[in-house]
Amino acid sequence: MRAQFVLSEIGVGLRRNLTMTFAVIVSVALSLALFGGSLLMREQVSSMKGYWYDKVNVSIYLCNKNDADTARTEAACAKGPATEDQKKQIRADLEKMPIVQSVQFESTDEAWKHYREQFPKSPIAAFLTPDQMQESFRVKLKDPSKYKVISSAFSQRAGIQEVEDQRKTLEPLLNLLNGMNIAALGVMALMLIVALLLIVNTVRVSAFSRRRETGIMRLVGASSFYIQTPFIMEAAFAGLLGAGFACVLLVGGQYFLVNNWLVHQIDVIQFIGWDAVFAKMPLVIAIGLLMPALAAFIALRKYLKV
């Protein structure tokens, strides 16, 4: 009988405050969708760092005959292309360094082949020839942060055009994703505050509209928890609906934005899969259920004198 009464009171409260309940559901859904999206974006950035930082190398580009022809602007290659003796000495010195894990030489033919494999849609790929590419040493460091040691030791050597840390090409993208993640967290926090204010206001209006019923319940000896339960469950139910919609938004974002668009637009990134999305859903649902219930409980202590 008590359970039936509580459920009937929940239905009455939701019908009386239908507009505000809908606003609570939308606010909770958007805030939790942004929260879940931020968690997924953070996991994506961490995955990219772990994958790419483990693969990036320090590239030491050697002078070729084309650099020698443009020596007026390439002072490092003014003495012509790198000789075989210079290549052997560079490799030997690299292999002696304790911070170096491995050294791999890439010929012009290999560089040309790798370029065509990595950028098959590039408009200049069809016009490039192997002799236009540069020979290079791909140096794998035990600690990628020690790039400056290699740069200072080899950047001024004869036969070397440039020493490049490949992490520099990834940092702008990772910084952009981190910035987007921070912005999403900021918007999420704002939407969360709005949702909490709406929950508190909804509970206040609901408690005021049913002050006669709660007064009668107090007179017949109903406990505080029994009187507060319908209001708390109303807020929890609205939050649960909002969390459900947030999960739908996350699934839709993964399916339409990631799987059906970004995967085809960006080939060099390994995007997170469905397992990461499904792993975040229980947390989103738990927050959607508990947050409104806690906000309603706190609000009732002030607005419902029991």
TrEMBL record:
The keyword Transmembrane helix applies. It comes from the Bacteria. InterPro entries: ABC3_permease_C, FtsX, FtsX_actino, FtsX_ECD. GO terms for cellular component: plasma membrane. Signal peptide: none annotated. Keywords: Cell cycle, Cell division, Cell membrane, Membrane, Transmembrane, Transmembrane helix. Coiled coil: none annotated. It is found in: Cell membrane. The chain crosses the membrane at residues 21-41, 182-203, 235-257, 277-300. The keyword Transferase does not apply. GO terms for biological process: cell division. It is a multi-pass membrane protein. Residues 56-163 form the FtsX extracellular domain. Residues 187-305 form the ABC3 transporter permease C-terminal domain. Forms a membrane-associated complex with FtsE. Belongs to the ABC-4 integral membrane protein family. FtsX subfamily. PANTHER family: CELL DIVISION PROTEIN FTSX. Part of the ABC transporter FtsEX involved in cellular division. This is Cell division protein FtsX. It comes from Streptomyces cinnamoneus. The lineage of its organism: Bacteria, Bacillati, Actinomycetota, Actinomycetes, Kitasatosporales.
